[in-house]
């Protein structure tokens, strides 16, 4: 372990909760409704992020890699030479390793670690990557600090994430955090400030503008075509599936109102 951080009890509880979520039935349900890429916008979101960050070749780390589909995409379509995927869920990593074998991809390593305290050497990789996952991490300052620590000077930190927009009421925030199991959402400005304070130039910070569209697609798929498959994943608990469908549709609507959005951010370490 290169990072040595003493985490608060709140941090440890949040990490345990997310591991339980992704190791369990709901994690499998996300894998069903999102597919291999558990982020809004799928393949196109990944290639746009890679293009914005100018990723072509080199070495990278995916902080919160899930099944590792983003890493496999970069390996296949952006000639990335090697990647390390960090994720806290052993279950998703096992699936990810198996899919690398199935895809014949040998330049990806998975490590089961907290993204805020990895075993990656300092200033050792060309870029840090992440898609729609930092919303699960409680201490965004520690997370950004870790991303900056491991990337080489001049290297990119490229990520998308769910962020809070404007006019989200307190009750809506509470519903969003509880329903999605987020410990807290950053704002776009908040991320820009954290990156700058940690010694980066922010070269790109944009609302993707497609939060509502993409989340609505997921909710509608779950509501219709995939309902049976979803029921199987959660022991045929129809009320749970209804709750998720209704929750996703409501949050998608908030996206339409600019209360929640998907940010795409690229920064460079000075
Ligand atoms: C929404 S999924 C996104 C996965 C991947 N980025 C993708 O686009 O498919 C979030 C992932 O983040 C992981 N995760 C959440 N908090 C983490 C943490 N503190 N450290 C490592 N992994 C974490 C979860 O286990 C889960 O696999």
What do you see in this structure?
Helix 6 links the parallel strand 4 and strand 5. This protein has one domain (9-209, 263-269): Vaccinia Virus protein VP39 (Rossmann fold, 3-Layer(aba) Sandwich), CATH 3.40.50.150. Helix 9 (211-223) runs antiparallel to helix 11. It has helices spanning 9-23, 25-34, 42-53, 69-77, 90-103, 140-150, 170-180, 188-197, 211-223, 227-233, 238-256, and strands spanning 59-63, 82-87, 108-112, 125-131, 151-164, 200-207, 260-269. A seven-stranded mixed beta sheet has the order 3-2-1-4-5-7-6, with helices on both faces. By secondary structure, it is α/β, with parallel strands linked by helices. It binds S-adenosylmethionine. Residues 15, 18, 22, 37-39, 64-67, 69-70, 86-89, 92, 114-116, 131-133, 136-137 line the site of S-adenosylmethionine.
Provide a compact summary of the structure:
The protein is α/β, with parallel strands linked by helices.
Helix and strand topology:
Elements: H1 9-23, H2 25-34, H3 42-53, E1 59-63, H4 69-77, E2 82-87, H5 90-103, E3 108-112, E4 125-131, H6 140-150, E5 151-164, H7 170-180, H8 188-197, E6 200-207, H9 211-223, H10 227-233, H11 238-256, E7 260-269
Parallel strand pairs: 1-2, 1-4, 2-3, 4-5
Antiparallel strand pairs: 5-7, 6-7
Helix pairs in contact: 9-11
